[in-house]
Amino acid sequence: MMIKRYDPINSACRKMLHGGDYNPDQWIRTPEIWDEDMRLMKLAGCNAMSVGIFSWSMLEPEEGRFTFEWLDTIMDKLAAIGAFAVMATPSGSKPAWLSRAYPEACRVNAEGVRQRHGGRHNHCRTSPVYREKCVQINTRMAERYKDHPALLVWHASNEYNGGDCHCELCVSWFQRWLKERYETIENLNQAYWSSFWSHSFPDFSYVLPTDKGIHGLMLDWERFKTHQTIDFFNTECAPLRTITPTVPVTTNFMNGSETLDYWAFAKAVDVISWDSYPNWHESKDEIHEAVSTALLHDQCRSMKQGKPWMLMESVPSIPTRGRVKKRKEPGMHLLSSLQAIAHGSDTVQYFQWRKSRGCMEKFHGAVVDHVGNEHTREFREVADVGAALARLDAIVGTSVKPEVAVIQDWENEWAIREGARIYLGENTKYRDECASHYQAFWQQGVPTDVIDQECSLEPYKLVVIPMAYLLRPGFASRIKRFVAEGGTAVMTYWSGVVDSTDLCYLGGIPGDGLREVFGVWEEESQSYYAHESVGIAAVDGNTAGLSGTYKAVDTCSVIHAEGSTVLATYADQYFAGTPAATVNAYGKGRAYYLAARTRDAFIADFYGNLVAELAISRAIAVDLPAGVTAQLRTDGETRYVFLLNFNASEVTVPLDGCYGDMLAGGTVDTRVTLARYGVRVLSRKA
């Protein structure tokens, strides 16, 4: 495995970063708290604090009057304790004076009503005056702190979202974007199939992003919002890049959300960061949450081809999201923090450092509680993470080169939401289906990339393509080439249904030439109620490692094998005896088609066989207990193996050799015991 060690996020600090969102402006009347914060940061092992988020009204309390002195003090205090600033620009929440002076900076809703000041991310991304004001204050910040020793990373805004603005300017820009995309109104009308319901447009000025009856239009509105957000980001970051060209720029993604295409956004940032808020302890076990979180972590690593990323926000105790507000149980904070490191992060950061006294997030988890001291369980567990990270500096910059990729694509997700949900109802569950396939590799300790349809497939032995309802331009051709040249592809039901404007393919599913690659025709598909299931029986002597019977749930497709080999068939319902899983030889490779959503047993058997047959590398060459995963980081010379136990009970894990124990010291061989929610970080020469 050829792999390199990446440079640290900023060469000024070659350590794991640990810290959180720090809002000293909330405590400007009690500066003694600032000194106490510095003491507590050192106790917790924190060395990187995000500052300036939502601070516009304190940095510029009235138009043109800037008050940076308090921030100067904080920057100096951070430098004095050997800590760094992840410096945020304040555009995530504009000050009240700006909304009143320039109402055109406020968003307009779909009914055409301009919104009053309030909340956050309440700005129009297109507004020239808002962009001008952002550039102005960002320029002043960059000029003021460009040489400050505490400046480590620029944190642009905060959690950019895809919030709609329907002002005349946004709609006009959208119409111009459509004209560049389609060139003629005839092309647009054909792409939208807008003759349906007599919705054909005479020219581009008639196209409004409120016609939910045209799925292609709704898709384009989502694409435009991503385009416009990236354009806004580039505009506000231009002075940062000019004045401080060596300081990396990031923004905290929310890739657990479908609001923006973060794969497209990833091209604009220097380092990926995201905000992770799992709902631990919500289910009877932690496996679903662990898998879903791991998938998103791996997606962050994949966005820059393996380059380490930043866990910009997590919570040390209790979040304000989720149905039930349950605190992390003892041990879970260290486990969940090192889970991010295991999947490629070089930081663990929190929202928030010190709890606010008022407003929306006054009860959101924090390192420092309202009591204001270090004598809380949350603080002690944060300090434990700080101590653990201090022992893992050798891992900074290491990564992994997976041989498996699972494709989870935002444009496809939007299309499923707008179009396929009409047909499949509540059983679409696209992200759950992606996570189900990903889990098979997670459980085996197989490093896995999570990519989108525009990524190269060449680095992989195995590519898994769940529910590719929409095919982006060129994707089918790349699948065909990948398989023909010796790759193995797995595609599921309800794939290759529509093109990039949500027009159905003619000539059978999967469309765009994939029917030939997979050797199947999907005739029909239907959903099932939660209490229903359909039996699947393995074909005797099949080559996929399937045996006995399995269950399909939620949705099943009736498919016909057209030259492909049947691996399993349906055991009941009116389509009993028809194929449920097939494999087709195509060129030098193989293409598998799974016609139904299955329970974990089928997925585990199927991918267990494929991993062995394709000799896909694993973090550690042993069978792992259920609920335990092994993840790998390496620089080509040393392998760092993370063993993570998401069970609420102790487990023993066999080893495939002798390792150094990076957290406890000494060496281990033969086996290790993982405590309840326990984690071990092991190392040995490659």
Major sheet: 11 strands, mixed
**What would you say the CATH architecture of the largest domain is?**
Alpha-Beta Barrel
* Radius of gyration, CA atoms, in whole angstroms: 26 Å
At the fourth CATH level, what is the homologous superfamily of the largest domain?
Glycosidases
What count of structural domains? 3
Count the beta strands. 27
CATH fold naming of the largest domain: TIM Barrel
Strand-residue proportion: 15-25%
Shape: globular
Question: Nutshell version of this structure?
Answer:
By secondary structure, the protein is an alpha/beta fold. The chain has 17 helices and 27 strands. It has 3 domains: 17-93 and 121-160 and 246-395, Glycosidases (TIM Barrel, Alpha-Beta Barrel), CATH 3.20.20; 404-613, Class I glutamine amidotransferase (GATase) domain (Rossmann fold); 628-685, Sandwich (Immunoglobulin-like), CATH 2.60.40.1180.
What does this structure look like?
With 686 residues, the chain is an alpha/beta fold. It is built from 17 helices and 27 strands. Strands 10, 11, 12, 13, 14, 15, 16, 17, 18, 19 and 20 form an eleven-stranded mixed beta sheet that branches. Strands 5-4-3-2-1-9 form a six-stranded parallel beta sheet. α1 (31-44) links the parallel β1 (17-21) and β2 (48-51). α5 (128-145) runs parallel beside α8. The mean pLDDT is 95.
